[in-house]
């Protein structure tokens, strides 16, 4: 699996059909919808500040990575949760796995536990934890480029979810089960966000 699912391999959307990468068509709908945004996933602030026209075209034509990046920018930079969730949902609905992961994580962080679990369950982590782990690594790598992502409510959500988690080993680093998976994902995110804040 090596480089295929690497944290640094942003040009890997396992849910998309790789045979669909021929951009020889002059139809802008097809071109902008399928254009790889891998660079901007790794550097989302570039998408916000230097490439406004490209950003607009990709969003207009339904580019999943574009919606994912826009969701991150709206949620964490512009502090507009509604627009952020709109774009993250567009990416998730289209099958962009990092969109599922981040949407689920943010739902947990906002104490919408049921919805958060539903998004995370789309990654089928119960049968293949590595997909979820790779999404987490890529999401956190992207978020590491943005300052000030912590919100005090995230910590409260983590404490509340810990109380609801019925697993004696929830604080063990090498144990994961149906009961503690969601809590552990949220805890890692909160600790990451707190470190980003300093």
Summarize the structure.
The protein has 198 residues and is an all-alpha fold. The chain is 61% helix and 0% strand. Helix 5 packs antiparallel against helix 6 (81-93), helix 7 packs antiparallel against helix 8 (113-121) and helix 7 crosses helix 9.
Structure overview:
It is a single chain. With 198 residues, this protein is an all-alpha fold. The chain is built from eleven helices and no strands. α5 runs antiparallel to α6 (81-93), α7 runs antiparallel to α8 (113-121) and α7 (97-109) packs across α11.
Low-confidence stretches: 1-7, 9-19
Percentage beta strand: under 5%
Order of helices and strands: HHHHHHHHHHH
How would you characterize the largest beta sheet?
none
What would you call the structural class? mainly alpha
Structure annotation, total helices: 11
Pfam families: TPR_27 (PF23310)
InterPro entries: At1g67623-like, At2g35280_TPR_dom
Protein name: At2g35280-like TPR domain-containing protein
């Amino acid at each position: 699996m090596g480089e295929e699912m690497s944290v640094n391999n942003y040009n890997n959307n396992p849910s998309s059909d790789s045979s669909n990468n021929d951009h020889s068509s002059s139809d802008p709908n097809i071109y902008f919808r399928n254009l790889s945004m891998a660079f901007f996933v790794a550097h989302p602030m570039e998408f916000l500040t230097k490439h406004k026209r490209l950003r607009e075209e990709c969003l207009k034509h339904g580019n999943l990575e574009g919606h994912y990046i826009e969701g991150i920018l709206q949620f964490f930079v512009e502090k507009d949760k509604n627009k952020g969730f709109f774009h993250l949902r567009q990416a998730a609905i289209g099958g962009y796995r990092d969109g599922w992961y981040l949407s689920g994580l943010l739902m947990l962080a906002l104490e919408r536990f049921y919805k958060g679990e539903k998004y995370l369950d789309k990654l089928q982590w119960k049968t293949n934890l590595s997909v979820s782990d790779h999404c987490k690594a890529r999401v956190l790598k992207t978020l590491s480029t943005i300052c000030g992502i912590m919100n005090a409510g995230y910590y409260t959500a983590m404490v509340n979810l810990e109380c609801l988690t019925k697993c004696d080993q929830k604080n063990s680093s090498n144990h994961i089960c149906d009961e503690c998976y969601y809590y552990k994902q949220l805890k890692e995110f909160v600790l990451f966000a707190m470190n980003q804040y300093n």
